[in-house]
Amino acid sequence: MKAFAEFELTKEFRDRFQEALDQRDRAFIEESLRDVNPVDITELLYEFNAEESKFTLDILPLDVRAAIIKGLDSDTRKSFLKIYTAAEISQVVNLLDSDDAADLLNELPIKVSEEVLLGIDAELRNQVIDLLRYDENVAGGLMAKELIKVRSHWTVVQCVEEIRKQAEQVEKFYTIFVVDENDKLLGRVSLQDLVISDASKRVADLLEEDVVSVETYMPDTEVAGIMKKYDLEAVPVVNVHGQLVGRITIDDVVDVITEQAEEDRQLMSGITEDVEEDDTVWKNTRARLPWLLIGIFGGMLSARFMGLFEKELVSVTAIAFFVPLIQATGGNVGIQSSSLVVQSLASPGYVDEGLWNRLSKVLFVALLNGFFLSVIVFGGNWLLFGNKQLSFVVSVALFSVVVFASLVGTITPLILDRFGFNPAVASGPFITTINDLLGLTMYFLTVMILL
Predict the structure, then answer these.
(1) pLDDT tens, residue by residue, 20-35
(2) What structural domains and CATH numbers belong to the chain?
(3) Which stretches in the chain have pLDDT values below 50?
(4) pTM for this predicted structure
(5) 329, burial (CB in 10 Å: exposed 0-12, middle 13-18, buried 19+)
């Protein structure tokens, strides 16, 4: 494994590098980036514009250039490749695995993509064309065509010789897949078994048939779940006829897991689109505005609802002091409950316990939490305000809010999941707005009954 030079991106180095770019100092750029990990160079290039980055890359060896372009995020790469010719892109694509090459071509305009295809090696071109027909969000769109496969009737000697030939096209391989004459997946064989077995032994005698595979049409999130569940470094991909057509490695699904977590985080924060801080003002506004409007609408309803209890507020003004407490507690409890449900629904090992079993457990937890919180609030209010009756009313209302907010926070994501919606939308502003209204209702009803 190649040893990379230690690299730290500091302001001083960035300024010096900018000076070298301005002066077109090729010697400094080449010397300063020699033996630096392509990942670190990618981080550095985010600091400069496309023309400056291209000048830097043109100085570097082609394999390093390919690794850096592969590592760019999709939006940056789309913009960056606009200043490259089709011939230059073809040079880079020729050094990529088929799945990475297909991803890159999907980001190009159709005309440029076709020109690039004509400029790459024939074998890679056929593999990429086969991959381009799959949607990017299914196993077929994730898989790479490069893999090691052997026939079940081969001897160990034949198998080893074939592995040597095929390994020239595969950068990393974690397992060897065994197929029949029609390329139907039969199982796998380990390198250890091949090394220690007699040379005349047949592959069929070493075959492990319990191989986990995925179909080309399986959603990428399910593929990620399977690889996580079975702790797989690679998983074979088969078509509807059971034929081996590719493989997916763990680095392919890391991005899927990251994107899914980011999407859920944004939904739970009340952001409706995939946005980043450096996106346009309009895109950021459009992503955040819908849930903010829901929050404002909920706030207006809360204000109107409080107006219905104007007499109570006038007669006992102290009850208004505890409205923020009731709303904040209800919102927090609801978000806690919904977040736990969303997390369990997203888990590959999730098993539906049944609605009543789940609700009974939530109810007992809510009763305990509500009891402890209401006792603490009762004691604190009595010491601060010296009004035993008011303290009792606030405590009873708080207890009721905790119980109902827990149930709402649990039921809402389950209902959304049942109807095929992403349960993550149940968290954040949605649950908070519902529980604000619920908390006010429980609070003022308690006030009317007990005061």
Answers:
(1) 999 999 999 999 998 8
(2) 11-137 (1.25.60.10), 149-258 (3.10.580.10), 281-450 (1.10.357.20)
(3) 1, 275, 348, 351
(4) 0.63
(5) buried
